[in-house]
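Entry for the shared binder. Reason: the reviewer on the internal report wants the predicted structure included alongside the sequence.
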Amino acid sequence: MGLKLSWVAVKAERREALLECLGLEPAGEVSQEVGVGLVMAELPSGWLVLVGNAFDDQLLSDLPRVSGACGEAIGAEIVDTVSFYKVQAYLDGLMQWSLASASEHGEPTSLGELPPIPPGTDDYEAPLVLAESLCGYRAGETPALEWLRLTRRGASRAEAPKRSMLEAMRAELLPLLMDLGWSFPPRPAMADFGVIRRELHGRQQSISFNYSSGVETYINVRFMSQEVNDGVASGLSGGVGPARAKRSFWQGFSWKRLSEATSYPSPSDDLIGAAIAKAREEIAVADAYLRGGFTDSRIYITHRWPSRS
């Protein structure tokens, strides 16, 4: 996976105590936890997880202070690039146990009395598996989480969005998707493939979204389409992005074109509304492509399978 992050988890009812302890406040929403700074999400297990970059946000060192404010707390550090995993548990500011693995071939090292590790667990992944068994979170793999972007209190001049990006997407994009034949459960996870889906001409198709609000506000439309013939799956994944120019800007140069290219619209007062409007247009582009291969310069393909030789 190449993950490099750290995280701490406390019981969800200690949310305000956690934010107060670390001097954090919500500053928008994001669709994933990796590479976007400090983020937080509530887990189905009743825990709350706060995630940050392993090097920029040393959350594991904050674990004693977090536990002192929140009681029970679990923290982990993951650095895949050097094969290092570590998880610790604290209660009322005191460490209860620690488990670390620093090599695929070495034995894990531990302190304190460990909780039972799920049977059949590889020694190398024991810290990750144990943490997941206790709080329900595994970095980069726990689906359907709704991530809030966090910032240090007073650090950002930007005002937090006045409405939820995710709720606006559900309210304004799901009716359009339903009209186009897509199906989904109530309150679907918008960032996960396989949640918003349909079958069309024998192909299983899915659509999902990368999104962000706050310091950056955008929605990116992604899609996947696959069919299985004689037990062999073939398909593609991609998305909708900016139109790709078919020729150099300076071909057919005119001062009018230069003026148009260097004139930018005034920023919208409703950034979320503007992102929604753009996403509606891109959904239509993706849908036309998935229905009949309709070509558009905004369509890009990231992966095809099986690979072409």
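Summary line for the report: The first strand starts at residue 4 and ends at 11.
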